[in-house]
């Protein structure tokens, strides 16, 4: 993947300003509420039987934060994202059996949460760079499935 200077700077800027403890939980809770079939991967997280339960679930929130910190690896290794996520792809494919389309659903929800946080600063150009980054990560995570 070729990155422009603008794309690199934009991705690094977004993640440097991101409140992981807010954005991560908001992203994962949005994902499992909007796409309830994704809840099957989180059955061990306790009560997730209603929107209120999901919103108050500490394990969902914690995992959302973990996911964002996982994206940090991609930000730090933008020139080698495929290899950066090779082991995580294998884990999600072979052990956790996560449908790879769920990575795209999560990235869409992350885009919505980030756009809401950034407001008018989330221009079309910023969105394009952000979604390009997420697309590369999603493709890398789904690589083991092919």
Please state the overall shape, judged from the principal axes of the Cα atoms: globular
Rg from alpha-carbon coordinates: 15 Å
Please, how many domains? Answer: 1
- Give the % helix: 55-70%
What is the N-to-C order of secondary-structure elements (H for helix, E for strand)?
HHHHHHHH
Detailed description of the structure:
- With 146 residues, the protein is mainly α.
- It has a single domain, classed as Orthogonal Bundle (Globin-like).
- 70% of the residues lie in helices and 0% in strands.
- It has eight helices and no strands.
- Helix 1 (5-17) crosses helix 8, helix 2 (20-34) crosses helix 4 (58-76) and helix 2 (20-34) crosses helix 7 (101-118).
- It is globular and about 45 Å long.
- The mean pLDDT is 90.
- This is Hemoglobin subunit beta.
Brief characterization of the structure:
With 146 residues, the protein is an all-alpha fold. It contains eight helices and no strands.
Secondary-structure blueprint:
Elements: H1 5-17, H2 20-34, H3 51-55, H4 58-76, H5 81-84, H6 86-95, H7 101-118, H8 124-141
Helix pairs in contact: 1-8, 2-4, 2-7, 7-8
GO molecular function: haptoglobin binding; heme binding; metal ion binding; organic acid binding; oxygen binding; oxygen carrier activity; peroxidase activity
InterPro entries: Globin, Globin-like_sf, Globin/Proto, Hemoglobin_b, Hemoglobin_oxygen_transport
Domain Globin: 2-146
Any key phrases for this structure?
single chain, Globin-like, 8 helices, 70% helix, 146 residues, mainly alpha
